[in-house]
Amino acid sequence: MVRLCVICNKERAIVKRPKTGQQVCRECFYYVFETEIHNTITDNKLFKKGDKVAIAASGGKDSTVFAYVMKLLNQRYQYGLDLFLLSIDEGITGYRDDSLETVKRNQQQYDLPLKIVSYSELYGWSMDQIVKEVGLKNNCTFCGVFRRQALDRGAVILDVDHIVTGHNADDIAETVLMNILRGDIARLPRCTEICTTGDGSIRRSKLFKYTYEKEIVMYAYFKKLDYFSTECIYSPNAYRGHVRTFIKDLESIRPSAIIDIIHSGEAFEIKEGVKLPVQGVCKRCGYMSSNELCKACMLLEGLNRGLPKLGIGKIFK
Ligand code: SF4
Ligand code: ZN
Ligand code: ZN
């Protein structure tokens, strides 16, 4: 018996939505996927007409789908946004150089201006050089701290009001769990916020906050989008990997686990008396920081003095 789409009741259902279990046709899948993101934007009043918005683009599936959907929604609902692609070149030979080629093709396909900023030009170190110094244990700490700042610096160069990133629901659930497992309660409220303010007044939003990774993969597959799917060659971030596997296992038993973890993270309240970091600016580079030196400057100090563990120790002591 042919099963009909539960939304339009006309077409044959060919997709079981990982997020809800609904059996839907292809067109209705596109429609609900896109509309959920549109609703996230409007419910949270994230943009106003004329905003300049940088889409963080890595060439991977999340950011490629994200750029495609942003462009489509901007036209369909006339948000009036000025969209840009902003890419970070971490300097990882055999990975980022290839994925940046995908971003350059996306630039042509979506007809959006592209700016690439590199770790080498910003920090004087590429990830290839950093890995030579620190090995494969703490490399992702360096890379994550540097990327956050690099995006803000790229946004300043582009003179945009807003950076939007393709972090999906699975990523956010992972971050909630990692913060709990590390006892890093101070970060919990911020990691589930849909919109935060980065350096200066540039806002940063995660519009895929409620979008499941599996649905992003399906969307990219059905739409035949051009994305890069190779893993970073320096990716053995064992701890996050275990958390990721744990969440995938939970999802296979109960798909709502991902959204439930996010909702739990949103509902956490920090009890009175817990000391939270006070935001100031880094005395060396002027970037926002709750210490005298920002994390990137601390890590750079360690690298430049030939003592890379120095920065790591200071951050996580
Ligand atoms: Fe950077 Fe680690 Fe991601 Fe590779 S896996 S891009 S080193 S954060
Ligand atoms: Zn349908
Ligand atoms: Zn600094």
From TrEMBL:
The lineage of its organism: Eukaryota, Fungi, Fungi incertae sedis, Mucoromycota, Glomeromycotina. CDD domains: CTU1-like. Its EC number is 2.7.7.-. Residues 281-310 form the Cytoplasmic tRNA 2-thiolation protein 1 C-terminal domain. It is found in: Cytoplasm. Plays a central role in 2-thiolation of mcm(5)S(2)U at tRNA wobble positions of tRNA(Lys), tRNA(Glu) and tRNA(Gln). Directly binds tRNAs and probably acts by catalyzing adenylation of tRNAs, an intermediate required for 2-thiolation. It is unclear whether it acts as a sulfurtransferase that transfers sulfur from thiocarboxylated URM1 onto the uridine of tRNAs at wobble position. Prior mcm(5) tRNA modification by the elongator complex is required for 2-thiolation. May also be involved in protein urmylation. This is Cytoplasmic tRNA 2-thiolation protein 1. The gene is NCS6. Pathway: tRNA modification; 5-methoxycarbonylmethyl-2-thiouridine-tRNA biosynthesis. ATP binds at residues 56-58, 62, 88, 166, 171.
